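ugh ok fine here u go
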Amino acid sequence: MPELTFFLAAGTAVLLGATVQSSVGLGLGLVAAPVVALLDPSLMPGTMLIATAALPVFVLAVEWRNVDWRGLAWALSGRLPGSVAAVWIVATVDPEVLAGGVGAMVLVAVALTVRAVRVRINRGSLLTAGLLSGFTGTATSIGGPPIALLYQHEEAARIRGTLAAYFLVGVVMSLGLLAAGGELQSTEIVHGLWLLPFVAAGFLAGRPLCRLVDAGRIRVVLLAVVTVSGIVLLVQSALG
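structure:
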């Protein structure tokens, strides 16, 4: 069983992150990954990937009709090579350097979006977003920004459903590749499983908020969440 300090601190972060993600589509990794990394860096990214694998199951139970299945297929096609590359990077590159690079990339993408650069959802953009998301998600457990930026102009329910389906398959893919590469330890799995009750509680807390999130609001919230994720990664890199 994890230490009480870890259980309470990480559990609270997971609860808050799951609440945000169940209402707007992403946020669990953003809120909880830095906390877990600060408490015990050796538990990353496996522990957070285990925790984030459960939430999409809950979301899909109510949002599966809104999934963009065609777009999902193309995005997942890009996720695989991105995840494979990340497994090699995790084993060879300093985690702080990696976090800083990913954070900078996320902030550049947000800056372009704010300047009204709207990327069309097509095969090329989906493959690219999936590739980037696979890389960042497997390496840092924060893989939502590329896909979220691509779908930010869609309806709120479509965003939540599509991101949930993407996260579920993508996280399972990342965990499998990390395990095959010898980068997933039993302690990461155990700690991740202990955090699952907090994930379930966050989902239940976030569902009532869905009624308050329309197409306009969800874009603002998504941009804010993605921006903070980039800043968090940069700060994590600097502190490391």
